[in-house]
């Protein structure tokens, strides 16, 4: 009984810490405990995070889709799908999970080697989805939406900046038998330590909306994204 009480106190302390990190206090602590429990601890589906991960994945899709619809009213289904895919992919969910350090609170058997980056990254993503699912069950859509907004959505530019729009544009031009895109630096402004690059994209004789960034690469990516949007809209 003393040992059980000891471990219970440890888990309560961990629960309190993670609640501060995610800025949400659970009404039903069972959901939080389940969201942090790996299946190596229990094969019972109701005691590990897998069912909550399944739910969280769907909730994240809805929240991100709604936010994209509201923020980009001019974009069609193709562009919205690209933006959503970048946000809900496992690698980005893992990035958000790392940002929150949630792997520090996982309940997992020692034989699962978290020192392997691939395994750890998977757990970061799974735990984040499970936490979203747990919050949804604990208090509904609005609080899970707030959590996603303050974590995943807040870092959306990071997801989009890592998307290879330049490569996608080259592929689109190849598929549609268009000329290869040509990227041209049209303007550079600002002091040496804080330059802004403006890059144009030419496809054949058509010039597309300029991209602007703190580096040539960033400006090229933005210009490529704008060109993809235009080609998708006009296709």
Description:
By secondary structure, the chain is mostly helical. The protein folds into 2 domains: 2-161, Ribonuclease iii, N-terminal Endonuclease Domain, Chain A (Orthogonal Bundle), CATH 1.10.1520.10; 165-233, 2-Layer Sandwich (Double Stranded RNA Binding Domain), CATH 3.30.160. It has helices at residues 2-22, 29-35, 50-71, 77-88, 90-100, 117-139, 141-150, 156-161, 165-175, 216-233, and strands spanning 182-189, 196-203, 206-213. The protein has a 3-stranded antiparallel sheet. Helix 2 (29-35) packs antiparallel against helix 6, helix 3 (50-71) packs across helix 6 (117-139) and helix 5 crosses helix 6. It is elongated and about 60 Å long. Residues 1-12 have low confidence and may be disordered.
Short description:
It contains 10 helices and 3 strands, in the order αααααααααβββα. It is mostly helical and 235 residues long.
Low-confidence stretches: 1-12
Work out the helicity level.
55-70%
State the CATH class of the largest domain. Answer: Mainly Alpha
Q: Which strand order do you get reading across the main beta sheet?
A: 1-2-3
- How large is the radius of gyration? 22 Å
The tally of helices reads 10
Spell the H/E element sequence. Answer: HHHHHHHHHEEEH
Question: What distinguishing features does this structure have?
Answer:
Double Stranded RNA Binding Domain, 235 residues, Ribonuclease iii, N-terminal Endonuclease Domain, Chain A, 10 helices, mainly alpha, 3-stranded antiparallel sheet, 2 domains, single chain
């Amino acid at each position: 009984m003393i040992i059980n009480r000891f471990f219970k106190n440890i888990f309560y302390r961990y629960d309190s810490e993670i609640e501060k990190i995610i800025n949400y206090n659970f009404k039903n602590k069972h959901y939080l405990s389940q969201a942090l429990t790996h299946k190596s601890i229990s094969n019972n589906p109701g005691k590990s995070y897998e069912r909550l991960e399944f739910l969280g994945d769907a909730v994240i899709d809805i929240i991100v889709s709604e936010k994209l619809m509201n923020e980009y009213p001019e974009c069609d289904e193709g562009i919205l799908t690209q933006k959503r895919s970048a946000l809900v992919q496992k690698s980005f969910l893992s990035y958000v999970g790392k940002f929150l350090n949630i792997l520090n609170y996982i309940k997992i058997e020692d034989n699962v080697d978290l020192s392997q980056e691939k395994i750890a990254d998977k757990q970061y993503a799974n735990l984040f989805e499970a936490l979203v699912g747990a919050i949804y069950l604990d208090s509904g859509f609005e609080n899970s939406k707030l959590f996603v907004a303050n974590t995943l959505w807040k870092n959306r530019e990071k997801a989009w900046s890592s998307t290879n729009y330049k490569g996608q544009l080259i592929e689109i031009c190849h598929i549609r038998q268009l000329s290869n895109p040509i990227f041209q630096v049209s303007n550079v402004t600002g002091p040496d330590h804080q330059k802004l690059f403006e890059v144009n994209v030419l496809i054949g004789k058509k010039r597309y909306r300029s991209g602007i960034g703190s580096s040539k690469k960033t400006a090229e990516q933005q210009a490529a994204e704008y060109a993809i949007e235009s080609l998708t809209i006009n296709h």
